[in-house]
Amino acid sequence: MRIYLSIAAGLVVLSLAIPAAAETATPAGRIKTVSGEAFIVHAGQTSPATIGHEVFESDRVRTGNDGRIGLTLQDDTRVAIGPRSEVAVDSFSYAPAEGSLGLALKFVQGVAVYVSGKIAKLAPDAVRLETPAAIVGVRGTTVALNVGAD
Amino acid sequence: MIRRGCAVLGMAVLTAACASTRAAREPQPQPEPAKARQSQDLVALLRDPGTGAVGRAVVSNAHGQVELTQARESTRVGADAAPTPPVLLTEEEAERLFGDVLETLPPAPRHFTLYFKFESEELTDESRRLVEDVVREVKNRPVPDVIAIGHTDTTGGARSNVQLGLRRANAVRTLLVGAGLSASAVAVASHGEAELLVGTADGVYEPKNRRVEITVR
Fold first, then answer.
1. Which of B105, B186, B193 to probe the A interface (max A CBs under 10 A)?
2. Yes or no, beta carbons of A68 and B100 under 8 Å apart
3. How close, in Å, is residue B23 to chain A by CA atoms?
4. Taking CB atoms and an 8 Å cutoff, what residues of chain B touch A132?
5. Alpha carbon distance B145, B138 (integer Å)
6. ipTM (interface predicted TM)
7. Chain B residues lying within 8 Å of A125, measured CB to CB
8. How many CB pairs under 8 A join A and B?
9. Which parts of B21-117 fold into alpha helices (H)?
10. What is the pTM of this model?
11. N or C terminus of chain A with fewer C-beta within 10 Å?
12. 134-193 in B: which are within 8 Å (CB) of A?
């Protein structure tokens, strides 16, 4: 009961504090750094990635020849991709009070760095990094990937 | 697939030869990309760019798994075989491969914990001085996210503690706004007594649990 009350209060407050996010769920994170040809794909629509752009579960970010994008998620996870790269935020759930924690990132191509956040700290098995050839389980901090490295 | 290939080719070439030598007659380009390139992924464990800490990573697929435990240890993995045994990248290799993307990482989030006087929304003097640090950190970032989450100790009812936590978070927001941030830039929430910093039984006075945690991303 206590937990439910506090969650309810927390959600109400959050939704009041972030009116822009009221249309759907709260965002998983935001684009914090961007340069060159950079795109975000949300609900099937591709648009230019701009600094401050919100990123939701199921979105993906993609770069062209000279593009770079850096994201910070709500649990402090950070992800950066280099040129000709793509990563999908397949799932994201960060509600520690409810025991709901999960992060799945799919590294589709190119170069990327992942720096773990609170989800990895609280529930390491809830973090899943996927490449076309493998799955990477993480116990803290920093992993770099080059997908299609040859 | 074969049928369609024959039909298409049949229009351009001799239909009779189609069934026996389909592969030879198909247009040359378009090798299947995965097989032609033997595409592999490289996975490397790096030192945390801020703290220098090194974690662990386990790379696995249907054929096996490999654990990376040292900074710059790496493995290559394709879909058809187990990940290779770990290979240590040189500093230069790691820099060449990942230096650029490491620089693209957003700045590390920072956390501040502000403490309150007993049953009040008033900060301790020490915490009051931290407010300026928070504001400075926020202003250093091009697109900051700031969230203040209020917490209480276990004295008082759970429900009233959610309210108290919220008043504390709002008090912190007011201070941050007074110090130059816009109110809309600071989100607030309360976890009441649900997330104790120092675990205690119910009804226990504990200054370390009376706090607002601020995250600046």
1. B105
2. yes
3. 26
4. 39, 41, 79
5. 8
6. 0.83
7. none
8. 203
9. 22-25, 33-37, 91-104
10. 0.77
11. N
12. 141-143, 145, 149, 158-159, 162-163, 165-166, 169, 186-193
Query: What domains can be seen in chain B, in order of their start residue?
Result: 1-30 (no CATH), 32-104 (no CATH), 110-216 (3.30.1330.60)
Note every long-range contact of B163-169, with CB atoms under 8 Å and residues 24 or more positions apart, other chains counting.
B163/A9, B163/B190, B163/B192, B164/B119, B164/B121, B164/B190, B164/B192, B165/A6, B165/B190, B165/B191, B165/B192, B165/B193, B166/A9, B166/A13, B166/B190, B167/B121, B168/B116, B168/B121, B168/B210, B168/B211, B168/B212, B169/A13, B169/B212
Cβ contacts of A49 on chain B, cutoff 8 Å: none
- Rounded Cα distance between B7 and B197, Å, is 72
Using the structure block, give the residue that is written with the tokens 């490397």: B44
Instruction: Give the tens place of pLDDT for each residue, B94-147.
Output: 999 999 999 999 999 999 999 988 777 888 888 988 999 999 999 999 899 999
Pairing between β-strand A127-130 and β-strand B41-46 as defined by DSSP bridges: unpaired
HSE on the CB side for B173, CA within 13 Å? 21
Average pLDDT over residues A24-28: 78
